[in-house]
Amino acid sequence: MGITTELLVNVTPSETRVALIENGILQEIHVEREAKRGIVGNIYKGKVSRVLPGMQAAFIDIGLDKAAFLHASDIVPHTECVAAGEKKHFKVADISQLVRQGQDITVQVVKDPMGTKGARLTTDITLPSRYLVFMPGSSHVGVSQRIECEEERSRLKGITEAQLDELGGYIIRTAADGVGDKEIEQDIAYLKRLWSKVLQRKRSNPSASMLYQDPSLAFRIIRDFVGSPMDKIRVDSRLAYTELCEFTESYVPELVSALELYTGERPIFEMYDVENESQRALERKVTLKSGGYLIIDQTEAMTTIDINTGAFVGHRNLEDTIFNTNVESTQAIARQLRLRNLGGIIIIDFIDMQSAEHRRRVMECLETALSHDRAKTNTHDFSALGLVEMTRKRTRESLEHVLCSDCPTCDGRGSVKTVETVCYEIFREVTRVNRAYDADQFNVYASVAVAEYIEKEESHSIAELELFMGKQVKIKAEPLYLQEQFDVVMM
């Protein structure tokens, strides 16, 4: 039986969320906040407003509040050949030879406007799809250096070169490694249709107008599913549905029949329990049906996943219990990587297995589970310490980084000092202040929990401190203070 695949698209004025459902289970969730959408990737028909020979740059009016900035080195072609004896070298041509004031020019944004600075531009325009990058006007086909197999490089280059025409050339992306001929050809067809639309707008649009906008989340997701089987794409906004219909008819005609306007009374994300599942994807602990569980910790350098048997004791012996828990965890790990969008280095600490055959079968199960992931993954066999190292290509920020920020109480550490620890810090601070300054009395303001602990458990310590200093120390509970927060005030 095949996999049924659905996309649920939830649109509000400030946020768009897309959920990928496979066989009724949430596999991926994508979130985009309107306030954080930049203009990088957008293509404009600009007009040169000023040429600055001293800066080797020009200001371009692209219809924004601030003029955008175009440096000579970002203009293609920008080099001129200079002969020096027998040798030839290239240097950036003078900006005055490359552009003139009042000239129309097609540009793409490479850096968003920041503060008082306008956007940074280039005339080296590129359009990405899932597996290719289109380069208008070029006749070149390049292959990502990260595709190392020469046979695969030749195969991909051959497919792409067969589709070359006067519109432009292509760079084959790392994600194309192992992809079939049909998918590459579908991407080429999509990019050709897209660039033809840009050229059409360039002919008809006035200066300082946008010719192409880097697609918003819903459009990007649909673009990335070109050629993939999609049973339903349900959209809960009539405006977004209309726009997606136009987009799919123009660029992804094979997905038109899957589009559907969702008009149900229940919020679209309540179907398939998406809201609750996305909340659970932020928790450290993931329970397995057998009673075992995963602990997932995301750090700056890597993500670690620890597997535990928990309450699962099995029916035969411990080795079988461990093996079955490890096998079950491979499915959960593959799903959590997609759901949380964890990228970079991932270290998996499976429960130790004595049998080499068990370890081999667990690795097979893991690789099978990861084969459904659209992000590229690389796994390495068990290390000498019994750990499995793998990498997963970063495609965007993880779900936790999109939805969460560091805890203000623990400052992102994931733990807070105990009331006992804070209590002893207070005693040390009172002693330090007493030595440094002349005061008659000390008032200590601390959180309710710390104040109660001092008064109940450490009242004898306060008495000894007062006797030692010959001064009174008053403890005052401050309801608004966090557990680690306190102030020592001299009176």
From TrEMBL:
Entry keywords, A to Z: Cytoplasm, Endonuclease, Hydrolase, Magnesium, Metal-binding, Nuclease, RNA-binding, rRNA processing, rRNA-binding, tRNA processing, tRNA-binding
Gene: rng
Compartments reported by the entry: Cytoplasm
Molecular function, one GO term: RNA nuclease activity
PROSITE patterns referenced in this protein's UniProt entry, alphabetically: S1
Gene Ontology cellular component terms for the protein in this record: cytoplasm
Entry cofactors: Mg(2+)
NCBIfam families, alphabetized: PRK11712.1, RNaseEG
Superkingdom of this protein's organism: Bacteria
Name the UniProt record assigns to this protein: Ribonuclease G
Primary subcellular site in the record, as a coarse category: cytoplasm
GO biological process: rRNA processing; tRNA processing
The family this protein is said to belong to: Belongs to the RNase E/G family. RNase G subfamily.
Domain S1 motif: 41-130
